[in-house]
Design a protein that fits this description.
Layout: H1 3-15, H2 25-36, E1 40-45, E2 54-59, E3 63-68, H3 73-89, H4 97-103, E4 112-117, H5 123-145, H6 157-161
Parallel strand pairs: 1-3
Antiparallel strand pairs: 2-3, 2-4
Helix pairs in contact: 1-5, 3-5
Protein backbone atom coordinates (compact mmCIF):
# COMPACT_ATOMS: atom_id res chain seq x y z
CA UNK A 1 0.00 0.00 0.00
CA UNK A 2 1.38 3.42 -0.83
CA UNK A 3 1.97 5.98 1.90
CA UNK A 4 -0.67 8.44 0.71
CA UNK A 5 -3.39 5.79 0.76
CA UNK A 6 -2.23 4.57 4.17
CA UNK A 7 -2.28 8.13 5.51
CA UNK A 8 -5.87 8.72 4.29
CA UNK A 9 -7.10 5.36 5.65
CA UNK A 10 -5.45 6.11 8.99
CA UNK A 11 -6.85 9.64 9.01
CA UNK A 12 -10.41 8.32 8.53
CA UNK A 13 -9.98 5.95 11.48
CA UNK A 14 -8.39 8.63 13.71
CA UNK A 15 -11.06 11.19 12.83
CA UNK A 16 -13.81 8.71 13.72
CA UNK A 17 -12.55 8.12 17.26
CA UNK A 18 -13.90 9.71 20.41
CA UNK A 19 -11.00 11.31 22.26
CA UNK A 20 -11.06 12.56 25.85
CA UNK A 21 -10.24 16.21 26.39
CA UNK A 22 -7.80 16.91 27.76
CA UNK A 23 -6.22 13.87 26.19
CA UNK A 24 -5.16 11.08 28.51
CA UNK A 25 -4.05 7.69 27.11
CA UNK A 26 -5.74 5.70 29.92
CA UNK A 27 -9.03 7.56 29.40
CA UNK A 28 -8.75 6.94 25.64
CA UNK A 29 -8.18 3.22 26.26
CA UNK A 30 -11.25 3.15 28.56
CA UNK A 31 -13.37 4.76 25.82
CA UNK A 32 -12.05 2.27 23.27
CA UNK A 33 -12.79 -0.66 25.60
CA UNK A 34 -16.35 0.59 26.03
CA UNK A 35 -16.74 0.99 22.26
CA UNK A 36 -15.42 -2.54 21.66
CA UNK A 37 -17.45 -4.06 24.49
CA UNK A 38 -14.49 -5.77 26.16
CA UNK A 39 -11.91 -4.76 28.75
CA UNK A 40 -8.50 -3.43 27.81
CA UNK A 41 -5.97 -3.43 30.62
CA UNK A 42 -2.82 -1.33 30.64
CA UNK A 43 0.12 -3.08 32.28
CA UNK A 44 3.41 -1.26 32.86
CA UNK A 45 6.40 -3.60 32.72
CA UNK A 46 10.15 -3.28 33.04
CA UNK A 47 11.72 -4.53 29.85
CA UNK A 48 15.22 -5.42 28.76
CA UNK A 49 16.61 -3.74 25.68
CA UNK A 50 16.36 -6.96 23.70
CA UNK A 51 12.57 -7.18 24.23
CA UNK A 52 9.84 -5.15 22.57
CA UNK A 53 8.85 -1.96 24.40
CA UNK A 54 5.17 -2.72 23.78
CA UNK A 55 3.03 -5.80 23.48
CA UNK A 56 -0.62 -6.52 22.79
CA UNK A 57 -2.00 -9.76 24.21
CA UNK A 58 -5.58 -10.84 23.58
CA UNK A 59 -7.35 -13.44 25.70
CA UNK A 60 -10.92 -14.68 25.74
CA UNK A 61 -11.62 -12.27 28.60
CA UNK A 62 -9.72 -9.08 27.77
CA UNK A 63 -7.04 -7.33 25.77
CA UNK A 64 -3.81 -6.44 27.57
CA UNK A 65 -1.47 -3.67 26.51
CA UNK A 66 1.94 -4.02 28.08
CA UNK A 67 4.22 -1.02 27.83
CA UNK A 68 7.69 -0.09 29.02
CA UNK A 69 7.35 1.66 32.37
CA UNK A 70 10.98 2.76 32.39
CA UNK A 71 10.84 5.25 29.52
CA UNK A 72 9.67 8.82 29.02
CA UNK A 73 6.01 9.79 29.38
CA UNK A 74 5.83 10.71 25.68
CA UNK A 75 7.29 7.33 24.66
CA UNK A 76 4.89 5.45 26.97
CA UNK A 77 1.99 7.36 25.43
CA UNK A 78 3.13 6.47 21.92
CA UNK A 79 3.56 2.79 22.84
CA UNK A 80 0.02 2.65 24.23
CA UNK A 81 -1.38 4.39 21.14
CA UNK A 82 0.62 2.10 18.86
CA UNK A 83 -0.79 -0.99 20.55
CA UNK A 84 -4.35 0.40 20.49
CA UNK A 85 -3.86 1.08 16.79
CA UNK A 86 -3.20 -2.63 16.30
CA UNK A 87 -6.54 -3.31 18.01
CA UNK A 88 -8.30 -0.76 15.81
CA UNK A 89 -6.84 -2.29 12.64
CA UNK A 90 -7.63 -5.85 13.82
CA UNK A 91 -4.05 -7.05 13.32
CA UNK A 92 -3.21 -10.68 14.00
CA UNK A 93 0.16 -12.15 14.91
CA UNK A 94 2.20 -14.33 17.21
CA UNK A 95 5.08 -13.32 19.46
CA UNK A 96 8.29 -15.01 20.39
CA UNK A 97 7.40 -17.35 23.31
CA UNK A 98 10.44 -16.22 25.33
CA UNK A 99 9.34 -12.57 25.12
CA UNK A 100 5.78 -13.50 25.97
CA UNK A 101 6.80 -15.40 29.10
CA UNK A 102 9.04 -12.59 30.33
CA UNK A 103 6.50 -9.84 29.69
CA UNK A 104 3.31 -11.64 30.70
CA UNK A 105 4.16 -13.92 33.62
CA UNK A 106 0.68 -13.33 35.09
CA UNK A 107 -1.09 -14.51 31.89
CA UNK A 108 -1.40 -18.21 31.18
CA UNK A 109 0.00 -19.13 27.77
CA UNK A 110 -3.07 -21.27 27.12
CA UNK A 111 -5.33 -18.27 27.73
CA UNK A 112 -3.56 -16.00 25.28
CA UNK A 113 -5.20 -16.19 21.85
CA UNK A 114 -3.19 -13.55 20.08
CA UNK A 115 -0.05 -11.63 20.89
CA UNK A 116 1.54 -8.78 18.99
CA UNK A 117 5.01 -7.66 19.96
CA UNK A 118 6.94 -5.01 18.08
CA UNK A 119 9.46 -7.59 16.91
CA UNK A 120 6.93 -9.71 15.01
CA UNK A 121 4.71 -7.30 13.08
CA UNK A 122 4.71 -7.51 9.36
CA UNK A 123 5.93 -4.30 7.77
CA UNK A 124 2.43 -3.19 6.63
CA UNK A 125 1.03 -3.79 10.14
CA UNK A 126 3.85 -1.78 11.67
CA UNK A 127 3.30 1.09 9.25
CA UNK A 128 -0.46 1.09 9.83
CA UNK A 129 -0.03 1.15 13.61
CA UNK A 130 2.62 3.88 13.51
CA UNK A 131 0.59 6.11 11.19
CA UNK A 132 -2.59 5.68 13.21
CA UNK A 133 -0.88 6.20 16.58
CA UNK A 134 0.76 9.39 15.30
CA UNK A 135 -2.50 10.73 13.84
CA UNK A 136 -4.44 9.98 17.04
CA UNK A 137 -1.85 11.88 19.08
CA UNK A 138 -1.74 14.74 16.59
CA UNK A 139 -5.55 15.05 16.67
CA UNK A 140 -5.61 14.84 20.48
CA UNK A 141 -3.04 17.61 20.84
CA UNK A 142 -4.82 19.75 18.24
CA UNK A 143 -8.13 19.28 20.09
CA UNK A 144 -6.53 20.18 23.42
CA UNK A 145 -5.04 23.35 21.93
CA UNK A 146 -8.31 24.49 20.37
CA UNK A 147 -9.17 25.66 16.86
CA UNK A 148 -6.98 28.79 16.96
CA UNK A 149 -3.78 26.80 17.48
CA UNK A 150 -2.98 26.40 13.79
CA UNK A 151 -4.04 27.38 10.34
CA UNK A 152 -6.61 25.16 8.61
CA UNK A 153 -4.94 22.08 7.13
CA UNK A 154 -1.67 22.75 8.92
CA UNK A 155 -0.62 21.08 12.16
CA UNK A 156 1.51 23.08 14.57
CA UNK A 157 5.04 21.77 14.99
CA UNK A 158 4.40 21.24 18.71
CA UNK A 159 1.70 18.68 17.95
CA UNK A 160 4.26 16.59 16.12
CA UNK A 161 6.77 16.58 18.96
CA UNK A 162 4.41 16.60 21.94
CA UNK A 163 5.10 20.13 23.14
CA UNK A 164 2.73 21.49 25.79
CA UNK A 165 0.14 24.10 24.75
CA UNK A 166 1.38 27.67 24.54
CA UNK A 167 0.58 29.71 27.65
CA UNK A 168 -2.44 32.00 27.39
CA UNK A 169 -1.71 35.72 27.56
CA UNK A 170 -2.19 37.35 30.97
CA UNK A 171 -5.11 39.77 30.73
CA UNK A 172 -4.45 41.32 34.12
CA UNK A 173 -6.81 41.52 37.08
CA UNK A 174 -9.66 43.92 37.04
Amino acid sequence: MNRARLWWRSRRVADGLELPSPFDPAAFVALLAERRGRPIELLPVTVRHSLPCGLLATTDRADYILYAADTTALHRQHIVLHETAHLLWGHEGAADPASLGLLTPHLSGSLVRRVLGRTVYTQPQEQEAEFLASLILQRALRNDRGPSASSPGQAPLGSLVGAPPAPKPDRGHG
